[in-house]
Specification:
The chain is an alpha+beta fold. The protein folds into 2 domains: 198 residues, Formyl transferase, N-terminal domain (Rossmann fold), CATH 3.40.50; 104 residues, Formyl transferase, C-terminal domain (Methionyl-tRNA Fmet Formyltransferase, Chain A, domain 2, Roll), CATH 3.10.25. Helices cover 26% and strands 29% of the residues. It is built from 8 helices and 16 strands. The strands form 3 sheets. A 7-stranded mixed β-sheet has the order 5-2-1-6-7-8-9. The longest helix is centred in the middle third of the chain and has 23 residues. It is elongated. The N and C termini lie far apart (58 Å).
Length: 313
Amino acid sequence: MKIVFFGTPDFAAQILSYLVEQKQLIAAIVTQPDRPQGRKLKLTPPAVKQTAALLAPTIPLMQPTKASSPEFLQELSELQADLFVVAAYGQILSKKLLSIPPLGCINIHASLLPKYRGAAPIQRALMNGDPETGVSIQKMVFRLDAGDVVAEEKIPLPLDMTHGELQQSLCDLSKPLLSSVLKLYETGVPAGKPQDESQVTLAAKISPEETQIHWDSPARNIHNLIRGLSPRPGAWCWINTSTGKKKLKILRTALSEETGAPGEVLSFEKGRCLIATQNGSLELIQVQPEGKKAMSVRDWMSGCKEAPLFTDL
């Protein structure tokens, strides 16, 4: 069975690596164009392109600006692939594209569909404090993550798990699940389970406004926001220091029952920084000061002349 793989970030790159290891017959790899990144806006290839160059240099690599362009659709048709496999590609696939392979297209989605359709299912599950999430492999249709589910796998969500950790766990979960689904497709199109439209929730892309910490919120809500956005883009707050007002990203916290006025520094000694919230408090464990790399709170505190003032303004 001949497949075309679509994907862009590290999550997809790891899936591609697994498919190559499993010796799947990959007719082509499709990823997004190189983009400027970093402060110097250096043109950088996506993770899938880097992995393809390392592990599968002989497989044709395609980077269409628009996956819906007639020229690209013609190229795909000429490959005569049986199935398209999509993992975090980053472009909407047109009806014409979805109709090209005779076995259809399948997508690896990092949620238990129909929950969290959309761009940020991993972040939303953590930010909402869900007790579990998982991976769904669904047949693609021309509606956002609305196709029949061929297979799924669940995973519990510990209270201290961050976005980065969950993404890796879901990626690891996806690999054997995808392998089992591809085996089903070797004998034809398998049956799928229709999604219950009454249970649909959306996982919209994270907006910049959502990333700011407001200390007058409940402690658990702030804790879930922090772990849902760690390590990137990172939840942040304003601090006033002896050198002025700066942003501080907070990447890991622990819940505490100590109380005080929202934003009050309850402890700032012996490597322990405790900030009051609407109810209870949060102990900071890992932070990233403005313009610096992530570090432990103990290391950050050792560079502070005095306890900063945490503020929403």
